[in-house]
Amino acid sequence: MAQHRAGEFSYVTAYEELEMSLLLPSPFQPREQIGDIDELVESIKTSGLIEPIVVRPKAKHFEIIAGNRRYHACRRLNFRRIPAIVVEMHDKEAYEAALAENLQRKTLDPIEEAESFRRYCEDYGWGSQSELARRLGKSQAYVAHRLRLLSLPESVRSVIRDGGLSASTAEEISRLKDSERQREILESAIRHKITRADIREAAVSQGPGRNETSAPDWLQTTQRSRKDLDALVIDRAILSLKVSMVRIDSLHERARSGTLKKVLLGKRIVLHQLIDELLSYKRTRIA
Asked: Taking each helix axis from N to C terminus, what angle separates 129-136 and 140-148, rounded to the nearest 10 degrees?
């Protein structure tokens, strides 16, 4: 079990070799498709998995927060176990972590980024554009410009997804209010490679600057503040107990003896009670 600190943030992690059968994909993954993983498979086959995936305890399994492509590559290679960092996160934190990692690895196309930002701000209602930008280490202008891409017709968005139009050029097109004018400029941008400055002259409004801050390590941007050392110790203990609960559940399913199943179920109940007691202690003594 390890403790990490970054500024006012601190968080607790555990390193585990997890059975592949205990892992589930996260419903908060920004990418809908894993894409081509042939090169990744070959890399892992040759050099092994250098960077562990990141998961969180979820019911009777571990939910993948970061490393979905690595997980699928290891599945293709028939791995039985996979190195993983176990972190305690809420849904919002898990989404921020997954999104930040994908942004750092540049695995999302501009439209996927925009849709991910929209889900955070609108569908889930987790925060404003400025809040999301701060959590990701981006400028608010970056987030706003990406979201503006969603106002473009689907035909234009498809071209962006396929790499036929850069995000910066598309952002300028999105400023045009007239859809017919958008279509005309889009065709010119694709056929004649007109510049962003050319498109800007046709735009109705100007946006703020596009300066962008570099993204910090994503784990440093997704955790709640832990100011009290005792609270950190309790969080460590709870995370350890949750990992044990998932393992007990797995063993319970494998057991064939009815007596053994009852014993394991009893141990799981004890673990659950210990977690409740620690949470109660934290609320009443430390909060």
From this structure: 120
